[in-house]
Specification:
This protein is α+β, with helices and mostly antiparallel strands. The protein is built from six helices and six strands; from the N terminus they run αααββαβαβββα.
Length: about 210
């Protein structure tokens, strides 16, 4: 197997070209490319360039919109609601983020719910903008039945991914991202696939 080393800029360009050539709008291609590039940067290969295979496959199967424009709703003093229109969640999250941060700063707490979306990315990517803004953040997603209960043989529970983080004065924020199952499902995928190329990670921990 040939190893190809890419800079982060090259990784982003590759990802964006793959996404654009497979039908994603410029807005979604840019958001997804930045996200998977950040996964490579942070040493999270399961949510890096390898993810492009599943992202494109999801689109080809008609399970996600390639160009939906999100709608953002000011639902209540501390509540933001986003309708992603059946697209991946990243663009909806980015567009709702300023209002979420504003509400959290004004009320001391705020929540964002993104509906009608497909979520594929590591949750630490959703937490980082919040800690960068000086806020404590918590994120979670629903999950399909992948995990059998203790003593069982048939899937019943999800992997229930959760992440949280908080800023630290004079230090990088503390960010924790995990699946509540014994192993994250995404890691199983990377062990059963042949990686095509990876960037040299800039850092492993935040």
């Amino acid at each position: 197997m040939e190893t190809v080393n890419l800079t982060l800029s090259e990784a982003y360009t590759l990802a964006r070209e793959v996404l654009s050539s497979n039908g994603f709008s410029a807005e979604h291609a840019d958001a997804i490319a930045r996200n998977v590039t950040a996964g490579e940067r942070d040493g999270c290969a399961s949510h890096g360039l390898w993810r492009l295979l599943g992202i494109v496959e999801t689109l080809r199967k008609g399970k996600v919109s390639a160009d939906a424009r999100p709608q953002i709703f000011d639902q209540a003093p501390a509540i933001v609601k986003a309708d992603a229109g059946g697209a991946f969640s990243l663009v909806a999250y980015e567009q709702a983020l300023p209002l979420l941060i504003s509400k959290a700063s004004a009320c001391g707490i705020a929540a964002l719910a993104i509906n009608r979306c497909v979520h594929f990315s590591a949750l630490f990517a959703d937490i980082e903008p919040l800690t960068d803004a000086g806020l404590v953040g918590y994120a979670c997603t629903p999950s399909h039945a992948w995990v059998a209960p203790s003593g069982g043989t048939r899937p019943l529970f999800g992997t229930n991914p959760i992440a949280f983080g908080w800023p630290r004065k004079g230090k990088p924020p503390y960010i924790f991202d995990m699946a509540t199952s014994a192993a994250a499902r995404c890691l199983c995928g990377t062990f059963t696939s042949t990686p095509v190329m990876f960037c040299q990670p800039r850092r492993a921990l935040r």
